[in-house]
Structures are given as structure tokens and as C-alpha cells.
From TrEMBL:
It comes from Deinococcus metallilatus. Residues 6-144 form the Glyceraldehyde 3-phosphate dehydrogenase NAD(P) binding domain. Residues 342-373 are annotated as: Disordered. This is Glyceraldehyde-3-phosphate dehydrogenase (NAD(P)). GO terms for molecular function: 4-hydroxy-tetrahydrodipicolinate reductase; glyceraldehyde-3-phosphate dehydrogenase [NAD(P)+] (phosphorylating) activity; NAD binding; NADP binding. One of its GO terms (cellular component) is cytoplasm. The keyword RNA-binding does not apply. It is an enzyme of class 1 (oxidoreductase). Its EC number is 1.2.1.59. InterPro entries: DapB_N (IPR000846), GlycerAld/Erythrose_P_DH (IPR020831), GlycerAld_3-P_DH_cat (IPR020829), GlycerAld_3-P_DH_NAD(P)-bd (IPR020828), Glyceraldehyde-3-P_DH_2_arc (IPR006436), NAD(P)-bd_dom_sf (IPR036291).
Length: 373
């Protein structure tokens, strides 16, 4: 491993960008050189409070930022001259316009899921295809939903156990910070395009995966809810499924029997655990909803859209810069720095529920087997 720190810029300091900036700052092998944006509201002023040098993504917006009291260290071009990798977190479709600037500066861009696969030609989920991104000139960290589907699908597909995946996604209507602008109320919107884009997108990460997704959105902003039905190549019972999930990075089991009955209670747990911004980087799979009929396995899981791609961006920086050739080591390093876990409440794990049957709160389940933590 090279000793020099990877120098990183974040362009676009919104929902994803601000979290990526904080996560990069937490790495001992990376240096956050600066962040860039165009809007001088409270969000970029938090970057100033954190001591991050702020740059103007567009030169013509520099005056506006300065007029609002934001100390502007220079333009995006000035920032790019100092870095190895830029994590572009500008709004979807806006970001792609930055490609020429990154090429001219000789800086490797990491795009987000709002951009098309073709922009980088490589769609990234660390535990699936880290090695293929090593020393590449660019990569795209896929969307929150695709990241979750890839983690879960790969857990079975990577073991030769997934014949086909069918998933239904109930997406959040909007993000918390802009809920007053875009929130929906007292309705739900089914997408009429089948498959929804997340299935084909997962195939850019896991070629050959037979997956179809249907999606819709509901009037909440806390995260997404997925239901997956995975036809297996041989019978996989709930015990085996559970053991596989416990071995899968960035997947954690939660239990309705512990009071974690819904999206809000899982997010409340994240706040109680004093996680930054209440973030959940893991896919939370309901242990008491796991089921198998010998032909298919059934999973219900929660995806915190604001947070799940953050560790992926950190690993992608290591992959593109070539500073860590081993996926497992990068994942372990990122996970340790952020506090990513397989068990949210490891010190008081109650006896295991019998999956698929649901266990009322307070009742006793079977003994907990030894499992990786
Ligand atoms: N919000 C999510 O749940 C989520 C999850 C996963 C991936 N993504 C993807 O991440 C990307 C960013 O999404 P977001 O939700 O963080 O958006 P956001 O709107 O919260 O943040 C975008 C930021 O970019 C800034 N910006 C606008 N124009 C810019 C420009 N020309 N140059 C630089 N910055 C500019 C905005 O001021 C804002 O601060 C998108 O591709 C999105 O699809 C979003």
C-alpha cells in the first residue's frame, strides 16, 4: 500500500456529498482537500463550521457564496488541481456535465447512481466488484436501491444459489431536508414501467443476474422498504439463509420482536445509537420475516437511502486510487471507521426467533448459534 494519502474533493454538498465528505475525513489514508457547491444556504455553511475548504463549483456562483459570508477558497478548477479523486455528488444529470472538467484536470471521478452506467462504464458495489475498479479512471457508485439489491442478491448469487430474483420496492417520497417541497400525502404512486430501473441497474453490477423489480413510492421520507423473492438453485432453508446473511458485509438483522416493527422504529434505533445524522449504512433485514418454501426464499429489508452508498464511495476511492488492492481489507477499514456492524445491539442479544413465524415481544425463541458478529 502506498503511504501517501489519497487527496479527495467532493463536488456537490447535498444529502450524499456532505456524508461522503464526513466519511472521507474519518479515513486515515485519505485527505478531504475541499468541497464545492453552488448554493449558499445553511448546508454549505455547515461545511465551513466543520473546517472544510469551500470552493465554487461554477465560477459565476462564487460571488453569491461570498456575499452570503461563505469563505470561498477558489473555483472547482482550483480544487481539482490539488486532488487525485473527485466524488461528484451534484444532482442527477447535472453531474455528467462535469466530465470534461475532470478529464482536463486529470482527476478520477466517482459518479453517483443518478448518472447512467455508461458515463463511467463501471457500476460499483464494494463487496461485489471492488477488484474490477482497481486503478480505473472512473466508476459509478450505484443508487441506494441498487446497492441494497446488489448486496442481498450477491449474497446468494455469489454462492451459486440464486436462480432468479424478484423484488418489490416501496420508495420514500422525498428526502427529509426537502420534504416541505416535494412531500406527497395520503397516497402512493406505483411506477408503470416494469421492470423498474433498479433491476437492470443491478445487472450492471452483477452481470447475468436474473432480476426483475417493481417499484412505487409512498408518503414517508425515512427510507425505502424492499420485498424480495429469490428462487434458489437448490432448497435453501431459513437457517441457511440466516447464516448467509450473517456472513454478508453491510447487512444487519433486525427483529420486529424487539420493537423494530417499522421503518420509523429502525431509524429511531439509529438515533439512539448516536449515529451521525441517524444514518444506517447497513441493509436492515427483518429476521422474523425471513421465509423459505424450498423453492424460493423471502426477504423484507429496509434501505436508508441517505446513508447506504457512503461506505461504497469510500471503498471506491481506495479502488480507483489503487491504494488498497484487497476488497475485504478496504471494506473492513471503512466499516471500522464508520461503526458499521452486523448487530446493532450486540450486548443484549436475546434468544433467536424462529424466522418466518414471527415471535411476539418478550417470548423465547431458539438458542442463538455461534455466528460472525
Ligand atoms: N438522496 C438520496 O437518497 C440518494 C441516494 C443515493 C444516491 N443518490 C444520488 O446522489 C446524487 C446526489 O443526490 P443528492 O440526493 O445528494 O442531491 P442533493 O440535491 O441533496 O444535493 C446536490 C447538491 O449539489 C449542489 N449542486 C447543484 N448544482 C451543482 C453543480 N452544477 N455543481 C456542483 N454542485 C451542484 C446542490 O446545491 C446540492 O447541494 C444523485 O446522483 C442521486 O441520484 C441520492
Amino acid at each position: 500500500m502506498k503511504s501517501a494519502k489519497v487527496r479527495v474533493a467532493v463536488n456537490g454538498y447535498g444529502v450524499i456529498g456532505k456524508r461522503v465528505a464526513d466519511a472521507v475525513s474519518a479515513q486515515d489514508d485519505m485527505e478531504l482537500v475541499g468541497v464545492a457547491d453552488v448554493v449558499p444556504d445553511y448546508r454549505i455553511r455547515v461545511a465551513v463550521e466543520r473546517g472544510y475548504p469551500v470552493y465554487a463549483s461554477l465560477p459565476e456562483r462564487s460571488g453569491e457564496l461570498q456575499a452570503a459570508g461563505v469563505p470561498v477558497a477558489g473555483t472547482l478548477q482550483d480544487l481539482l488541481a490539488q486532488v487525485d479523486v473527485v466524488v461528484d455528488c451534484a444532482p442527477k444529470r447535472v453531474a455528467a456535465a462535469n466530465q470534461a472538467a475532470y478529464q482536463a484536470a486529470g482527476v478520477k471521478p466517482i459518479w453517483q447512481g443518478g448518472e447512467k452506467h455508461e458515463l463511467a462504464g463501471y457500476s460499483f458495489v464494494a463487496q461485489v466488484n471492488y477488484e474490477g475498479a482497481l486503478n480505473r479512471d472512473s466508476a459509478r457508485v450505484v443508487s441506494c436501491n441498487t446497492t441494497a439489491l446488489s448486496r442481498i442478491s450477491h449474497a446468494l448469487h455469489g454462492r451459486g444459489l440464486a436462480r432468479r430474483v424478484r423484488a418489490v420496492l416501496m420508495r420514500r417520497a422525498t428526502d427529509p431536508w426537502e420534504s416541505h417541497r416535494n412531500g406527497m400525502i395520503n397516497t402512493a404512486t406505483p411506477e408503470t414501467k416494469v421492470p423498474s430501473h433498479q433491476g437492470p441497474d443491478a445487472q450492471t453490477v452483477i452481470p447475468g443476474l436474473d432480476i426483475t423489480t417493481l417499484a412505487g413510492a409512498g408518503p414517508y421520507n425515512l427510507s425505502h422498504l424492499h420485498f424480495a423473492m429469490i428462487e434458489t438453485t437448490r432448497p435453501v432453508d431459513v437457517e441457511e439463509l440466516r447464516a448467509i446473511l450473517l456472513e454478508t458485509p453491510r447487512v444487519a438483522l433486525v427483529r420486529a420482536a424487539d420493537g423494530l416493527e417499522a421503518l420509523n422504529s429502525v431509524m429511531e434505533l439509529m438515533r439512539d445509537l448516536r449515529r451521525p445524522r441517524g444514518d444506517m449504512w447497513e441493509v436492515a433485514v427483518w429476521e422474523d420475516a425471513l421465509a423459505s418454501d424450498g423453492r424460493e426464499v423471502y426477504l423484507t429489508f429496509q434501505v436508508h437511502n441517505e446513508a447506504i452508498v457512503i461506505p461504497e464511495n469510500v471503498d471506491c476511492i481506495r479502488a480507483l486510487s489503487g491504494t488498497e488492492p484487497d476488497a475485504a481489507r478496504s471494506i473492513a477499514k471503512t466499516d471500522a471507521s464508520l461503526g458499521i456492524t452486523r448487530h446493532f445491539l450486540p450486548s443484549s442479544r436475546p434468544p433467536r426467533v424462529t424466522p418466518g413465524q414471527g415471535t411476539p415481544a418478550g417470548s423465547k425463541g431458539a438458542e442463538e448459534p455461534t455466528a460472525p458478529r
